[in-house]
Write a structure and sequence with these properties.
The structure holds two protein chains of two kinds. Chain A is α/β, with parallel strands linked by helices. Chain A has helices at 7-15, 40-50, 75-91, 105-111, 143-152, 177-188, 210-218, 234-240, 301-304, 307-317, 335-343, 346-352, 403-412, 418-422; strands spanning 26-30, 33-37, 62-65, 95-97, 120-123, 137-140, 154-158, 162-168, 197-201, 227-229, 261-266, 273-275, 283-285, 296-299, 327-330, 356-357, 378-381, 397-400. The chains are: A alpha/beta, B alpha/beta.
Chain lengths: 423, 165
């Protein structure tokens, strides 16, 4: 055994009440937050009731967010929302977010200060790994795990090994966390980190904004990872300050921690990157894809619907026109971000550019509604998956990209990076 | 616990969006979900699969979303088990939790052809391709996991109201 633990292992050990844990060990950990959404919570509620559980373990440590199909897209979705609402009301769930207060869960919970550094969080949504950006352990599970956790406040885990990403330098102008994580997935593949942690470290971390870090951790699951995690620095603490109700607990990887693999990345080498259909690992530089004509652009999602993403899209779209034949759909991820876009005049500028702006919803990312693709159509999206049929017809195509590439492509009518367009 | 039936064969990275497309996730009714199982990569599947049939696939089966609707749709179709070279993490956990038997076995995943008659003994991990006569050995689950699957899932096993077979 090694002489130390990774950051993830230290958080897991602390939540299991142990001095040390070892890769492969099965542990039971106490949870700081249990999350579900309008798709996964109904299944969890049915399981919770079927198992005969009476009360939830702690009504302040459960978050139920209606975000996937709300405002309700159809009668069946409305019934699912109603079921969630009923459960939240019955158990007095403190953090229940309905239309008007909701946001896309993984943008909303950090914004509302419900997750802090050192936390151990599970959510019945695969992108729960997003909160690693705050120096927390967080991972996606299914509805049954959510049901059991709502009753017990605990979950079992197999302690993961880790891949360490040592970041140096700074990202070039026009590049963002999205380009970094797409490049990494292109490098290691969609199962390159299966069952493992992706731990980010190195001097380059400092240059990444919190929104960049959220995007990077959000897509750790797209490399198969159990979690992604960043060290806690001044940026993390200033993000958490005045926001998080609970005190941050800062964990650092031990000097002697063992990693399965160490990958060094110079952020200067990252270029605007696009993942082509139908896997997030099919990455190419945006500059090589200018022959790909597009029908739609989506800017939003738990991956890229945050304020910085809106700022990037706005800087590119303001005063310009979306290309003929392209539908450009912009979805701020939370009500606070949506409101800020209104206050700053972004919404007016987006509409003048020929885009539409929706209230927060996961909607088109998973082919729910608000931008479904027809047979043969192509979309550049700032979302996280481009699987067959993900955004609509099984013969439609999704190209994953950053907000800068998506907005630039909306103006061009074909895939292009922000730099290429300037030339 | 045993199953046996015809093999349906798929490749690497079968994701949860093709196992059950999100456009059908406005319900959690298992029989509704089963009607659309694998629809986007195999439109024939849900209509032809019979009780006890098995799915054979490559690496990273079930990657993508955390939707428990995916293993639930497969199980409700009548599929007796899934054999793959590897499973994505959340799917692996969900399959156990809802009582869908799965086995990791690269040799079987390579050797079994679409349409072969296959028998699986989950207690021993022995997989038999009856059509070709080949047998394969997978690592069986430890007894406590087998008990969860046999009971019909985690909460059924905890509450003792399992659908014991």
């Amino acid at each position: 055994m090694g002489n130390g633990m990774t950051m993830t292992q230290k958080i897991l050990a602390a939540h299991a009440g142990k001095d040390a844990v070892f890769p492969g060990e099965l542990i039971e950990a106490g949870l700081d937050l249990v999350l579900g959404n309008d798709i996964t919570t109904p299944v969890a509620v049915n399981e919770f009731r079927r198992a005969g559980f009476g009360d939830v373990f702690d009504r302040d440590k459960i978050a139920v967010v209606l975000d996937h199909f709300v405002p309700n897209k159809d009668i069946k979705a409305a019934e699912q929302s109603k079921l969630c609402r009923g459960f939240a009301c019955e158990h007095g769930i403190t953090h229940f977010f309905d239309v008007g207060k909701m946001g896309i869960e993984h943008a909303l919970l950090p914004e509302q200060g419900l997750v802090t550094a050192g936390d151990c969080v599970i959510g019945a949504d695969s992108h729960t790994c997003t909160y690693g950006a705050l120096g927390a352990f967080s991972t996606g599970v299914g509805s049954t795990d959510m049901a059991a956790a709502m009753a017990t406040g605990k979950a079992w885990f197999r302690v993961p090994t880790a891949i360490k990403f040592e970041l140096e330098g700074t990202l070039s102008e026009g590049c963002s966390g999205k380009d970094l994580i797409l490049s990494i997935i292109g490098m290691i593949g969609v199962d390159g980190a299966r069952y493992k942690s992706m731990e980010f470290s190195g001097a380059g971390v400092r240059s990444l904004s919190m929104d960049d870090r959220f995007t990077v951790c959000n897509m750790a699951v797209e490399a198969g990872a159990k979690n992604g995690i960043f060290p806690v620095d001044e940026k993390t603490l200033s993000y958490l300050y005045g926001r998080a109700a609970r005190k941050p607990v800062v964990y650092e990887a031990d000097g002697g921690a063992e990693y399965e693999r160490v990958i060094k990345i110079d952020l200067c080498d990252i270029v605007p990157t696009v993942a082509c259909p139908h896997l997030p690992e099919n990455t190419r530089p945006a500059s090589e894809l200018s022959d790909i004509k597009i029908d739609q652009v989506v800017i939003g999602s738990c991956t890229n619907g945050r304020m910085e993403d809106m700022e990037t899209a706005h800087a590119i779209l303001k005063g310009k026109k979306v290309a003929d034949g392209v539908r450009c759909i912009i979805i701020p991820a939370t009500m606070a971000i949506y409101r800020e876009c209104v206050v700053r005049g972004y919404v007016t500028d987006f509409i003048d550019a020929g885009a539409v702006v929706s209230t927060p919803t996961c909607g088109p990312c998973l082919g729910g509604y608000m931008g479904i693709l027809a047979e043969g159509e192509r979309c550049v999206a700032t979302t996280n998956r481009n699987f067959v049929g993900r955004m609509g017809h099984p013969k439609s195509e999704v190209y994953l990209a950053s907000p800068a590439v998506a907005a630039s492509s909306a103006l061009a009518g074909y895939i292009t990076g922000p730099e290429d367009r300037k030339k | 616990m045993k199953t046996g039936g015809r093999a349906f064969r798929y490749g690497d990275n079968v994701d949860t969006d093709v196992i059950i497309p999100a456009r059908y996730l406005n319900t959690s009714a298992a029989d509704e979900l089963a009607k659309h199982c694998m629809e986007d990569i195999d439109a024939e599947f849900a209509g032809t699969v019979k009780d006890g049939d098995i799915i054979v696939a490559g690496e990273n089966f079930g990657c993508g979303s955390s939707r428990e609707h995916a293993p639930l749709a497969i199980k409700t179709c009548g599929v007796g088990g899934v054999i793959a070279k590897s499973f994505a993490r959340i799917f692996y956990r969900n399959a156990i939790n809802i009582g869908l038997p799965i086995l990791e076995c690269a040799a079987a995943a390579d050797g079994i052809r679409a349409g072969d008659e296959v028998g699986i003994d989950f207690d021993t991990g022995i997989i038999t391709d009856i059509t070709t006569g080949e047998t394969y050995r997978a690592e069986p689950f430890p007894p406590f996991i087998q008990n969860i699957i046999r009971s019909g899932g985690l909460l059924a096993s905890v509450s003792g109201e399992g659908e014991k077979k």
